[in-house]
Write a structure and sequence with these properties.
The chain is of the alpha+beta class and 396 residues long. The protein has three domains: 116 residues, Orthogonal Bundle (Butyryl-Coa Dehydrogenase, subunit A, domain 1); 98 residues, Beta Barrel (Butyryl-CoA Dehydrogenase, subunit A, domain 2), CATH 2.40.110.10; 146 residues, Up-down Bundle (Butyryl-CoA Dehydrogenase, subunit A, domain 3). 50% of the residues lie in helices and 14% in strands. It is built from eleven helices and nine strands. The strands form three sheets. It has a four-stranded antiparallel sheet, with helices on one face. The termini are far apart. One of its GO terms (molecular function) is fatty-acyl-CoA binding.
């Protein structure tokens, strides 16, 4: 570098200059989602969280559809056809507002819509995807069962043929969007193996009681799905997949969004701690001027920006068709763990104020406790990586 070279100004909000990796279109999409979240979520989220409800979910879904955030990385059928990096940026901005909002979008687009888009018939795609992309139809994804979390291959929900129809019986648990969904993608054991079914939620025998008394993801609709002799026509089954690879590929797509989203919660907590440290005074000066506080801020900044850089790398691999499930596990394991630690450290900088809903930190921290274990627990992702490293399967 010559002596006359002029360095760009240092931006504390972009420590590594990661915005240099983004195109003008990427930045515009990020700005759109950030502005929407600032206008529609942030003014209300503390109240929604405290009450344990998401009262405007149908209106929010329509608005998210209008900005192209639902199924945004899918092609056709009213979907935006955005890149994986652009979808990741949207997830980061949504989770910077609240994990529950990002979960709404993830389940809609990366689970329910993705399953229909990848494994559905053309008729199923035409029937459901345009309305889901617009937010007119909310979808949910029924895989987890009351006693079957990390071992979905042992699911107890059954689908049996009765003439040309299918009859489904079983229960699913911890289902985001369940009680407000117009369509559910439900996975069940059949004589042929595990299959997915597109279930209109108004069909006889289907119910979705909402789960209350949660201490995490409180601004999110979570339900049980009950299927009691639910009768479906033959064409309700997803025709293009049989076996666990169906639901697991959907989960991998959703986990990718979590890799980005977790960094949104971390960024919100970190920025809150930085701002607070500049104004909170003890012993005659702002606490941000003390070495121990600066050490905390520096360590959080390093992990935050490393996590965002990792998300960028995985997004580029996904856009190139090179992203492996093991690499998604790497990203989810690292970024969610580090996001929780950033939230906890930020809370210490705010002291007692850190537990107040006046600030977002404790809300993010409790939400991330759910994100840590859904769509693959820490232990499952460790074992995925362990098998990849050794070639030995420790699951069984």
């Amino acid at each position: 570098m010559s002596a006359s070279s002029k360095l760009p100004p240092f931006d504390p909000a972009d420590l590594l200059g990661l915005d240099d990796l983004l195109s003008a279109e990427d930045l515009a999409i990020r700005s759109t989602v950030r502005s929407w979240a600032a206008d529609r979520v942030l003014p209300h989220i503390a109240e929604w969280y405290e009450k344990g409800e998401l009262p405007d979910i149908r209106e929010l879904a329509l608005e998210l559809g209008s900005i192209g955030a639902l199924g945004m990385s899918l092609e056709g059928y009213g979907c935006a056809g955005a890149s994986a990096v652009q979808y990741g940026l949207a997830c980061l901005e949504l989770e910077a507002a609240d994990s529950g909002i990002r979960s709404l979008v993830s389940v809609q687009g990366s689970l329910a819509m993705y399953a229909i888009h990848r494994f559905g018939s053309e008729e199923q795609k035409q029937q459901w995807l345009p309305g889901m992309a617009a937010g007119e139809i909310i979808g949910c994804f029924g895989l987890t069962e009351p006693d079957r979390g990390s071992d979905p291959g042992d699911m107890q929900t059954r689908a049996k043929r009765d003439g040309t129809d299918w009859v489904l019986n079983g229960r699913k648990m911890w289902i985001t969007n369940g009680s407000v969904a117009g369509v559910a993608v439900v996975w069940a054991q059949t004589d042929e193996g595990i299959r997915g079914f597109v279930v209109p939620t108004g069909v006889a025998g289907f119910s979705a009681p909402e789960i209350k008394h949660k201490w995490s993801l409180r601004a999110s609709v979570t339900s049980e799905l009950v299927l009691d002799d639910v009768r479906l026509p033959a064409d309700a089954a997803l025709p293009e997949v049989v076996g666990l690879k169906g639901p697991l590929s959907c989960l991998s797509h959703a986990r990718y969004g979590i890799v980005w989203g977790a960094m949104g919660a971390a960024r919100s907590s970190f920025e809150t701690a930085v701002a607070y440290s500049k104004t909170r005074e003890q012993f005659g000066k702002p606490i941000g001027g003390f070495q121990l506080t600066q050490a905390k801020l520096a360590d959080m900044a390093v992990e935050l920006h490393k996590g965002i850089l990792l998300a960028h790398h995985l997004g580029r691999r996904l856009d190139a068709g090179k992203l492996r499930p093991e690499q998604v596990s790497f990203g989810k394991l690292n970024n969610v763990r580090e996001a929780i630690e950033i939230c906890r450290t930020s809370r210490t900088i705010l002291g007692a104020n850190g537990i107040s809903l006046e600030y977002p930190i404790m809300r993010h921290a409790t939400n991330l406790e759910s994100v840590l274990t859904y769509e693959g627990t820490v232990e499952m992702h460790q074992l995925v990586l362990g098998k990849a490293l050794t070639g030995l399967d420790a699951f069984r």
